[in-house]
Automatic annotation (TrEMBL):
Cellular localisation: Membrane
Entry keywords, A to Z: Coiled coil, Hydrogen ion transport, Ion transport, Membrane, Transmembrane, Transmembrane helix, Transport
Membrane-spanning parts: 420-444, 465-482, 545-563, 575-598, 634-652, 760-784
UniProt feature coiled coil, ranges: 91-125
Name of the molecule in the record: V-type proton ATPase subunit a
Pfam family, one: V_ATPase_I
Membrane topology: Multi-pass membrane protein
Keyword Plastid attributed: no
Family the entry assigns: Belongs to the V-ATPase 116 kDa subunit family.
InterPro entries attached to this UniProt entry: V-ATPase_116kDa_su (IPR002490), V-type_ATPase_116kDa_su_euka (IPR026028)
Domain of life: Eukaryota
Amino acid sequence: MGGGIFGPTMDLMRSEPMQLVQLIIPIESAYRTISYLGDLGLFQFNDLNAEKSPFQRTYAAQIKRSAEMARKLRFFKEQMTKAGLSPTKSLRSSDVDLDRLEVALGELESELIEINSNNEMLQHTYNELSEYKLVLQKAGELFHTAQSSVAAQQSELEAYNTTEAATDSALLLEQEMTMDPSKHVKLGFISGLVAREKSMAFERILFRATRGNVFLKQSVLENAVVDPMSGDKVEKNVFIVFYSGERAKNKILKLCDGFGANRYPFMEDLNKQFQIISQVSGRLAELKTTLDLGLAHRSNLLQTIGFEFEQWNFLVKKEKSIYHTLNMLNMDVTKKCLVAEGWCPVFATDQIQNGLRRATLDSSSQIGAIFHVLQTKDSPPTYFRTNKFTSAFQEIVDAYGVAKYQEANPSVYTIVTFPFLFAVMFGDWGHGICLLLATLYFIFREKKLSSQKLGDITEMAFSGRYVIMMMAIFSIYTGLIYNEFFSVPLELFGQSAYGCRDQSCRDASTAGLVKVRATYPFGLDPKWHGSRSELPFLNSMKMKMSILIGVAQMNLGIIISYFNAKFFGDNINIWYQFVPQIIFLNSLFGYLSLLIIVKWCTGSQADLYHVMIYMFLSPTDDLDDNQLFFGQKFFQILLLLSALAAVPWMLFPKPFLLKKQHEERFQGQSYARLDSSDYPPEIEPHSVSHNHEEFEFSEVFVHQLIHTIEFVLGAVSNTASYLRLWALSLAHSELASVFYDKVLLLAWGYNSIVARSIGLIVFISATVGVLLVMETLSAFLHALRLHWVEFQNKFYVGDGYKFFPFSFASLGEDDE
């Protein structure tokens, strides 16, 4: 599969040999040791302080310090995101001192917080002054309009005062002007801005609260203004409320507060208005300049942080992960050493020891770290060294269950069988080319796309790009065999072997065609497409092909179980599980596959349904026309008896042999020498005492009974399950044919360019949406089920756990 840089050739068939290792590390070199092991990424630490809370561990203070630094970096990232900046990718280097970095981060955070606070205050003042300026302008316009109206009314009033008839139609204003000046009522007013969506409610409640004893005038602002309190752009109206009395004023002030209306002072004197407007405008200009300078300074500061952000972020995460790992280690009794335990691959022994020696030298320690391999009966973690091509196939298998330590890995076969079974259901080389082009785009741009954040579906497709590439290549191959290019047959490998009986071809649809040339060299003859016998022929061929593929893959699974048993030295499973299973499966469905091949080779008209049914119902009856070869009747009886004998062979011997094996293993161990154990009774390892448990024969027998019934019934149901290959292949072919005949060809029958364009668009949309997306997903899921259930249940235990080494390479962007 490929070569490792340091270790032996990468082998996907069985997981890497692992060993449990104890490291005794002097305290002065512990930090560098863990750091170098993290760079290596081949050691999985076991937590020796699982009973302690995070606050009781040795390096809790250092982790708290790292967490505080990480919080500051998150704050910087949030500020950069708000400012529309992104961290600059930089080469990681470890020449930054963490103590100086902590001080620098604190200073930068304080400076940034101060800049933000000042900017917020200045922006708040700027927004308030902007609103104040608008109120002065709009309210001034309202007062100017009112004064013009009053002047016009006064001139009219003077004209009417000369006649006696004017007394009956005097206005309120006329009466006030003729009254004694000492009796005039002085009206107060309040001006400000209110949100336009609240203006109607504000007016109604103001009227009700004061019982109509106010006069409200509003003016609409054309553009939205920035609200000083929220900082959002809001559409507002300028208002002026005229009132009389202190009680009315208090009510108006409370309503303004309730509606979030901002109040601003206003002078009736025109000169003072102009003076205030000029002052506000000057103040706004100053604030604008100050704000721009502040934002420029903030932007420069964030850009400076952005240049170093990735490096700082990685260093802080690295620091935190190192101390988190150190907290998993035990402190020695002398308080001078740390004791670590963990798993590592055997091939990494030299690399780990080199790292330990390097850490000792770099930390100027007088004592070197000790590397000691422990003997254990615990199951080691499973570790497969994969590359970017094989990792996706390994993930498909791991989604079902992680392989038990050193059991056969299904992904070796899945690399070929998974895309092949997909292609059997998806066979169309036109659709295969479309899939191939899409996945080649991902592959050629993988470096750029891997550093970008993609959507969920795109990310899923990108991570499985090599799986999709294999699926596309196999689809092109099966599509050439089916001779389908978007459901259209093509004579790629020569002319069809069939032709008409005469040149007129009048009886082609009734009498049929005759063979006029040699057999079509590769795949299906194009003349089958569109003929009356196309569907019966393809149904028969694909159904038989599905059975052959299914029986072959199930046999492969049973054969792998033999190699598993041989690898672990389990002779009981070889003789009392593998042998009866292979006999039972092939006595029934292996024989059916043989009959299919013989029938294809001989061209016999035998009914295989009849042969298989009466093999069970009437095994001694003559076969007559259904006989395919000499001695078939005797052979069938022999196979039937073998299948019947295989069932008790699977069921009974194994539980009794396991019981006998258990008794022999522990016979006489109840009387052991006093010095036979290296452990005192109170500290005897759990794994040593575990072996003396009672053997539950009934439990083992019931388990074997369930396993036997499951295999016997599964042999039938699993074989039938492979018929999904035939069903989905037929469905895909018919859907493609319907889209081509009923959409594209139908639209092409019109002479209108519009009709043809619509037909072409509908055809492309249906092909992409249904055949290239939905059908791809459907075939993928069915191929997944065939591997997980029909194939892997013959040999795969899948109850292991993954090897998760301590590695800095796995420190993701969102990993804290």
